[in-house]
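tmp note - Exocyst complex component 3
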Amino acid sequence: MKETDREAVATAVQRVAGMLQRPDQLEKVEQYRRREARKKASVEARLKAAIQSQLDGVRTGLSQLHTALSDVQDIQRSLADVSKDWRQSINTIESLRDVKDAVVRHSQLAAAVENLKNIFSVPEIVRETQDLIEQGELLQAHRKLMDLECSRDGLMYEQYRMDSGNARDMTLIHSYFGSTQGLSDELAKQLWVVLQRSLVTVRRDPTLLVSVVRIIEREEKIDRRILDRKKQTGFIPPGRPKNWKEKMFAILERTVTTRIEGTQADTRESDRMWLVRHLEIIRKCVLDDLIVTRNLMVQCFPPRYQIFRSLLNVYHQALSTRMQELASEDLEANEIVSLLTWVLNTYTSAEMMGNAELAPEVDVGVLEPLLSPNVVSELLDTYMSTLTSNIIAWLRKALETDKKDWVKETEPEADQDGYYQTTLPAIVFQMFEQNLQVAAQISEDLKTKVLVLCLQQMNSFLSRYKEEVQLYREEHLRKRQHPHCYVQYMIALINNCQTLKESIVSLKRKYLQHDTEEGVSLSQPSVDGLLDAIAEEGCSSLLEEIFLDLEHHLSELMTKKWLLGSNAVDIICVTVEDYFNDFAKIKKPYRKRMIAEAHRRVVQEYLRAVLQKRISFRSAEERKEGAERMGREAEQLRFLFCKLASGFGEEMDGHCDTIVAVAEVIKLTDPSLLYLEVSTLVSKYPDIRDDHIGALLAVRGDASRDMKQTIIETLEQGPAQASPDYVPIFRDIAVPSLNVAKLLK
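out:
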């Protein structure tokens, strides 16, 4: 306490010191004193209130403790009295055991008396029930069966209550009512038969189906009541619970499965279209059954059964199982397509689950897939693998068939525009079209994959096609008289290339979506390149035919005979024009290229004749005459090729101007201007070489050795640069094996 007092004094001194720090605060001492007095009074009042509250609580607690003590004492006295009374009543309870046994026997006898009539009439009721079952009076038969079971179960329950361990009496009762279980089983068989034929029964006699459902409902109620009693007493009659409701749905499920499996009427050996027929029968059966269920059967069952939803799930599961079985078989490509089309499209379409008569109970958006994604993927992989093999075989067969036509003695057929063609493009793309149409029925993704596959196989096929065209050409070159219609069929093969290109574009436009077109189009350039290569080779072989026939007449050019008045160019023009009249059966893109190439080749052969030094002019008069003849023949050739190209609306390249330019060099009369003229020639035709210039000067016959050497050396110092669009014409012209030194002599 002293320590507390000291701390209180120290605190008070500190507070007073804090309040009286300035002289003017002394005037407020009285005010401070009164304020502190009020605070002290307030604190004392709170302390008194707290102490009073605690004292009241202690007083209340002591009072409750005294009351509890009194109650405990009263309870002890009551327990002692109860214990005394219980010890005195033990003998009384023992004396009442005989009364208890009498009560049990009385209860059993009361049950026996109550069922006495039924007990004596059991054989008669059994016969009546059997007759009613055979007559189809199922409700009445079930009523009598319930009476029998009720009598049996009541007697057995009373026996169980009296002496649950007495198996002899229980067996006696059970054997006496032994026919009851047989009647129950017989009635159940009749119920299951009706349920198995429920879709037919509901149309002809819905009352019978309603009776079956009522019987099952009664048995369900009895099952529930007996199971509830079992929880209390532990007793359950024989044959319970029957669970007829569960068995009903099991019967319906087994019936649906059998019905679906029974729709397969054919096998692959007896009918190639067995699967299509099987799936179509399934579609019709399932749709009809569900419509009947929705419109008729739901009226025969309690709403809580949700019979339509239950049967819908049963049908869906049975279909899924059947589709899995079909998918596991060794299906052919067309059968895989039929199965996937049915599973992925037909099943959810308006022809089946999406039918208006099933809405809104059936929502195709929430139906589980009949086949898992893995199974679908495996089927698609198998289909693509089989389709690849089939396409390869089909293309090979189509090519072999087309090759047989190439050697026919009759001309190939022409299309509506008069262009020769064979049946190959039509056969190939009819096959592609059919497979794409089939794939489109399954999914967009499969359609794209099939299109890519077709383009890939087209690449491989075109390589074989190109080899066969080459062999066809080589065979003809060995024996030009065979085959008889070689030119016409080569024209048809060229046209096939254009037809194939157009068909590919058409297929892509028809079956390819814009968002996938870019990826698929990567294979297009290689296909186009192969087709162009085949067509160009065909065009080259036809041009080779022309130049083989022109070989003799080309050899007359720039010879003495030519200078004296040969009609070689006339024959060349007539021959070329005659061939191109036949080539009118070639489609325009390739015919245009052939005319351009023929133009270049004819001019090139003409220039080759000039540079082969077949003639050397001896005088200016000869040079003038030869140059003028070259100019006339150049104009003649220009007229020919302009005429041939007139249908294309474009001007021909000025290859014939090359002949005129060379003629100008030959015609020049002033040798001093020869360098200038040759320089002009070289600037216009950058691919001209030294040996070409030497041979040209040799043809003139008047250029000295020094002049030749000076011209060649000067031109070598500044070779001309070719423009990007320049078409070389001198590059492939070989000069006879004389070196420049010999030409200069």
